[in-house]
Amino acid sequence: MKKWITLFSQTGTEIYNLINLLGKKPDAILTNRESFDGININLLDVAIDRIYFLQPRPTTDVYNAVLRDIGCVPENTFLTMHGYLRIIPDEICNTYEIYNLHPAPLRQHPELKGKDPQKRIASTPYTYYGNTIHKCTSELDAGEIVCEEFYPNKNYSHQEIVDLSHSSATNLWFNFLNHII
């Protein structure tokens, strides 16, 4: 069985929700937060022993050192990004199997790659909102799409799109991860 490593920059709530749905904890949880402050307390309760702190802007050497220290071997490890707000260096993308959830339907709207797609969906009459899980490559949000959910945009506000996307993201991850772990 492959090692499952998760990364996050925000609260880690999505990882906590996945632990509950899957009945499995990631082998390690990496964050570029500077402390436990602001991390979902429930995640700390169930997986504090698996959380590793990276530098705020990790380098290739930092990723390699941490992954090596937790016993990761590229052919036997996959990583998932859950609100991880850093671009993974090319060498790491080319060495490890990494998946990211992007909060926009990239097949329908490939121009929504990059930062703040939900704001752009709300401020422009896009037909759909949703989420895309794709393989990470050196090009931002350009890797092979492995699964996607999208919904009609009914002129939702930015906050409504954020809330709707968050609620569907965990289910999309669950369906994807259920097949590989």
Account of the 3D structure:
Helix content is 35%, strand content 22%. The protein has six helices and seven strands, in the order βαβαβαβαβαββα. Strands 3-2-1-4-5-6-7 form a seven-stranded mixed sheet. Strand 1 (3-8), helix 1 (13-22) and strand 2 (28-31) form a beta-alpha-beta unit. The chain has one domain (3-103, 131-150, 166-180): 3-Layer(aba) Sandwich (Rossmann fold), CATH 3.40.50.170. With 181 residues, it is an alpha/beta fold. The model has no long low-confidence stretch (mean pLDDT 94). It has helices spanning 13-22, 41-47, 60-69, 90-95, 117-123, 158-180, and strands spanning 3-8, 28-31, 51-53, 77-81, 97-102, 128-135, 145-152. It starts with a strand and ends with a helix.
Give the overall shape: globular
Q: For the report, how would you describe the main beta sheet?
A: 7 strands, mixed
Query: If you consult CATH, what is the topology?
Result: Rossmann fold
> From N to C, what is the helix and strand string?
EHEHEHEHEHEEH
Work out the helicity level: 25-40%
* CATH-scheme architecture: 3-Layer(aba) Sandwich
Low-confidence stretches: none
Alpha-beta content class: alpha/beta
The percent range for strand residues is: 15-25%
Indicate the radius of gyration in whole angstroms.
16 Å
Number of strands: 7
Terminal Cα span: 7 Å
Q: Give, in spatial order, the strands making up the sheet with the most strands.
A: 3-2-1-4-5-6-7
Query: What is the helix tally?
Result: 6
Overall residue-averaged pLDDT value: 94
